[in-house]
Write a sequence for this structure.
């Protein structure tokens, strides 16, 4: 697949990264899809549990792709996620706060699916916006 | 600049070491951390980042001097810090780096006393290059993970 095709695939997948399109989003992930975080890995099985929890906590969450950089079989994505904290998240009761998170990731593509993901989430900023960590 | 040259610039930023002369000056200085910063890191940084460089991080923008000061704060808190590149992608005028800082919390960080803990700080940074220098970057750093490793914020 070309770089152009890879970027288009990522765009299509992330456009479905919402509560109502969650099942369609999972179709873009290979069965052995894995997410690598600085603290450890998450399998597709774990994500199919964790992602719905996230979407239920932020039911109106919407992802905007700000920029993509692609080379070979990988696409780096700079994105902003915006939503409202309406459900319990990681033990934090709903605050009603609007959150905006800038996240970055690199995805690897094979056979028309996303197979691997490396990312760093702006977790501290999110905790601040949820009022769990004081703003400095 | 070609993609190859852009990647080389970023590699040079991450991997350049001080010369033996500069190392000697640093070791003989009263405050080696400050000396390392002013005699090596600052000139190295200013040679690679344009004067009008802008950093986008955590919803804020910082100019070159502010970015330099952020780096000084990190290096003071983690004097043995090494910054690695695990993955690098490049396209057009952009280079993306995913990597980790490894270091020991031997100095005060953000007003908190040193913990002595060994930490790993993950980052993913997009650099935009123009005229042979880095002009803009978007950085995500796992600061939550760092705070948890330092014991400042509980793991959930």
């Amino acid at each position: 697949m070309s770089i152009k095709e890879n970027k288009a695939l990522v765009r299509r997948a992330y456009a479905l990264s919402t509560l109502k399109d969650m099942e369609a989003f999972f179709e873009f992930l290979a069965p052995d899809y894995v997410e690598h975080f600085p603290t450890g890995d998450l399998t597709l099985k774990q994500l199919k549990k964790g992602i719905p929890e996230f979407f239920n906590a932020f039911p109106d969450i919407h992802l905007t792709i700000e920029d993509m950089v692609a080379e070979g079989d990988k696409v780096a994505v700079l994105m902003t996620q915006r939503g409202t904290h309406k459900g319990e998240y990681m033990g934090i009761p709903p605050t009603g706060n609007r959150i905006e998170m800038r996240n970055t990731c690199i995805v690897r593509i094979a056979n028309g699916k996303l197979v691997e993901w490396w990312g760093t989430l702006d977790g501290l900023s999110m905790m601040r916006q949820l009022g769990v960590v004081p703003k400095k | 600049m070609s993609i190859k040259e852009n990647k080389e610039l970023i590699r040079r930023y991450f991997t350049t070491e001080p010369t033996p002369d500069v190392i000697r000056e640093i070791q003989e200085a009263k405050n080696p951390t400050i000396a390392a910063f002013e005699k090596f890191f600052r000139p190295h940084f200013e040679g690679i980042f344009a004067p009008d460089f802008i950093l986008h991080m955590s919803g804020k923008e910082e100019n070159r001097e502010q970015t330099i000061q952020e780096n000084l704060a990190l290096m003071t808190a983690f004097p043995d810090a090494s910054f690695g590149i695990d993955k690098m992608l490049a396209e057009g005028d952009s280079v993306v780096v995913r990597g980790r800082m490894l270091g020991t919390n031997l100095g005060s960080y953000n007003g908190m006393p040193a913990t002595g803990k060994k930490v790993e700080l993950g980052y993913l940074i997009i650099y935009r290059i123009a005229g042979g220098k880095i002009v803009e970057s978007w950085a995500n750093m796992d600061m939550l993970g760092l705070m948890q490793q330092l014991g400042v914020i509980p793991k959930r």
